[in-house]
Amino acid sequence: MADSIDYGHLMHSAMRSLIKTVLIDVKEHGLPGEHHFFITFDTTHPNVEIADWLRERYPAEMTVVVQHWFDNLDIRDDGFSITLNFGDAPEPLNIPFDSLRTFVDPSVEFGLRFESNEDEDEDIGLHSVDEDVAELEIESEDKPEPEEPPQKEAEVVSLDAFRK
């Protein structure tokens, strides 16, 4: 028996279970109302599966937006897979729950942050995202913004506002 209770591990497990439950509901019923997700994950995790060009562009972490268009959402005990559209090119992604760094639903100001061992001095878990969401920086590929963004494009964003 351990000398102490590992609350950090238990909290992370509960938060991953919450995300799994939310994704299962989205798979079965779609995204309700204005809900959408910013999901940041560690691209160096050994079980992350993304296209080589995405791994080259995002060698440490990547944030995807699940909103207007996604396909093939499949949830497993250890993670989920999803196909997202990057510049009219559908790309399958396999994302283990253990690789998650943040999960944010800005429509309801909800966010979860998973701390790594490097961040163990910081708080674990739930936090308000009302100020952070306003600071999200959407990365572009040096092309002008269209007047009306296309409804079928995934966006990669930087969530540096969540870092202390």
Textual characterization of the structure:
- Helices cover 21% and strands 31% of the residues.
- By secondary structure, it is an alpha+beta fold.
- The protein has helices at residues 7-29, 52-57, 130-134; strands at 37-42, 61-66, 71-75, 79-86, 89-96, 100-105, 110-113, 125-128, 137-138, 157-158.
- The model is unreliable at 119-152 (pLDDT under 50).
- The strands form 3 sheets. It has a 5-stranded antiparallel β-sheet. Strands 3-4-5 form a 3-stranded antiparallel β-sheet, covered by helices on one side. It has a two-stranded antiparallel ribbon with strand order 9-10.
Which overall shape is indicated by the principal axes computed on the Cα atoms?
Answer: globular
- How far apart the termini lie comes to 35 Å
Oligomer: single chain
> Order of strands across the widest beta sheet?
2-1-6-7-8
- Written as H for each helix and E for each strand, in order along the chain, the element string is HEHEEEEEEEHEE
Structural class: alpha+beta
Q: How many runs of DSSP E, i.e. beta strands?
A: 10
Our Rg estimate from Cα atoms comes to: 16 Å
| Total helical segments | 3
**Share of residues in strands:** 25-35%
Q: What are the low-pLDDT stretches, counting only 5+ consecutive residues below 50? A: 119-152
Q: Which bin fits the share of residues in helices?
A: 10-25%
Average pLDDT taken over every residue = 78
Question: What does the largest sheet look like?
Answer: 5 strands, antiparallel
